[in-house]
């Protein structure tokens, strides 16, 4: 009997210890579940049941119970009734987790959108597609490639795939429940959108990537010349070689999870960290860096309205990505690290803009040299450039080395292959090894003789 009591006591202590250790994580878990549910329902027009069964059905997050209020446009989540969090939808700004600022978001302004409807087909318009047959394309092989990426749905979890050759859609497929009009969360693909805004500002002569030093703008004159971070430039930030400390760990309470699920102003977190290594020596992947860049971007405009309008007037709506929505935090900053939504065809348009070196149907959006800049390796591995990913080091051995890509969590991808005049988009809920990008792309490339 004593042994049994001791066993029960040990088990009880383990349960209590585990609960105490994981209790702070519940805030992150419920926050993720509520935010993901709200955005998927109110931006992508998905059903709550589908989001629960698929998107939120991942370790830890599936512990959260989420309810949706269609009238109030909110989603509320908790874990075993603890750490309740609510996310609310705001027209034009997307969804955001509340931290007690409900009154302020009700008064928020929104971006001005301009839809340029014309009679042109994809990609320069939205009037369908041109039924073009290329003699050098093996369409049966292309279907085989799409079959491959959509096979094993329980593990590969592909949702949409699109192949654009010489500006024409030659292959396109959608999982049941998704269409060409369904907005897809790009996660970190949004980073490349945010970086492109700097390419536009540079082209317009409004900013210098190499000389602008954000840490020299001290509000306290006593700090000028004393902060070791003063040498950091926009180039260092865009290449994620600033040397600033950052923990991009999504499995714990880290810099990135605190920023995304606990902070009202996400542009401040990276700027509050210390120098860990000298600038331009080590590349450290950081969502905080991208959101810091979003905050710096805001300072380039006279008012908040101009900041909100800029991405849409100078990039998004200008190239007809009318389905795209960039969500903001509670302080009104674009969450450039993670929260950009667009349908698959519109994500492909972004890839085509880079394939065409910034020229959109005769209109320059940014200088052609910007493509060279973002595709120049930021480290010896040659895996990354300036907020873009590279194949220069041969990560995908069966794909041309000039391929560069826009990458997001769970295998959101825009592959740009200049030597093949090709843009390939794949979205889903799984990445390597379950989704094998090299295998998929090699099948696609085999279709183009």
Account of the 3D structure:
The chain has twelve helices and 15 strands. The chain has helices at residues 2-42, 48-55, 102-105, 139-150, 189-203, 234-238, 255-262, 287-298, 304-316, 344-355, 369-374, 437-446, and strands at residues 64-69, 74-79, 82-90, 94-97, 158-165, 168-174, 184-185, 325-326, 340-342, 359-360, 363-364, 389-390, 404-408, 412-417, 422-428. It has a six-stranded antiparallel sheet, sandwiched between helices. A four-stranded antiparallel sheet has the order 1-2-3-4, covered by helices on one side. Strands 7-9-8 form a three-stranded antiparallel sheet. α1 (2-42) crosses α2 (48-55) and α5 runs parallel beside α8 (287-298). 44% of the residues are buried. The model is unreliable at 8-21 (pLDDT under 50).
């Amino acid at each position: 009997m004593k042994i049994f009591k001791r066993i029960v006591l040990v088990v009880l202590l383990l349960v209590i210890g585990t609960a105490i250790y994981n209790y702070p994580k519940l805030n992150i878990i419920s926050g993720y579940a509520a935010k993901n549910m709200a955005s998927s329902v109110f931006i992508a027009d998905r059903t709550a049941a589908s989001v629960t069964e698929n998107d939120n059905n991942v370790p830890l997050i599936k512990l959260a119970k989420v309810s949706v209020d269609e009238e109030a446009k909110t989603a509320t989540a908790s874990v075993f009734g603890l750490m309740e969090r609510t996310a609310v939808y705001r027209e034009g700004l997307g969804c955001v987790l509340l931290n007690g600022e409900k009154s302020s978001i009700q008064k928020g302004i929104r971006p001005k959108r301009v839809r340029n409807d014309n009679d042109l087909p994809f990609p320069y318009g939205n009037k369908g597609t041109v039924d073009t047959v290329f003699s050098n394309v093996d369409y049966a092989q292309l279907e085989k490639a799409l079959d491959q990426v959509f096979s094993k749905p329980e593990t590969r979890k592909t949702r949409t795939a699109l192949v654009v050759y010489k500006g024409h859609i030659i292959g396109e497929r959608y999982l049941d429940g998704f269409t060409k009009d369904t907005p897809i969360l790009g996660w970190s693909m949004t980073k490349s959108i945010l970086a492109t805004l700097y390419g536009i500002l540079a082209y317009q002569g409004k900013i210098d990537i190499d000389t602008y030093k954000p840490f020299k703008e001290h509000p306290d004159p006593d700090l000028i010349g004393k902060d070791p971070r003063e040498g950091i430039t926009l180039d260092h930030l865009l290449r994620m070689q600033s040397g600033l400390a950052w923990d991009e760990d999504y499995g714990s309470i880290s810099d990135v999870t605190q920023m995304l699920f606990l902070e009202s102003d996400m542009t401040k977190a990276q700027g509050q960290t210390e120098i860990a290594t000298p600038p331009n020596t080590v590349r450290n992947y950081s969502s905080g860096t991208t959101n810091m860049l979003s905050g710096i971007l805001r300072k380039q405009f006279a008012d908040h309205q101009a900041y909100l309008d800029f991405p849409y007037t100078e990039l998004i709506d200008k190239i007809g990505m009318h389905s795209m929505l960039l969500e903001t935090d509670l302080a009104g900053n674009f969450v450039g690290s993670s929260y950009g939504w667009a349908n698959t065809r519109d994500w492909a348009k972004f890839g085509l803009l880079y394939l065409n070196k910034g020229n959109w149907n005769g209109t320059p959006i940014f200088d052609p040299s910007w493509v060279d800049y973002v595709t120049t390796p930021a480290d010896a591995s040659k895996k990354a450039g300036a907020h873009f990913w590279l194949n220069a080091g041969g990560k995908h051995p069966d794909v041309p080395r000039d391929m560069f890509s826009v990458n997001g969590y769970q295998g959101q991808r825009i592959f740009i292959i200049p030597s093949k005049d090709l843009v390939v988009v794949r979205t889903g809920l799984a990445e390597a090894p379950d989704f094998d990008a090299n295998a998929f792309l090699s099948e696609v490339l085999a279709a183009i003789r």
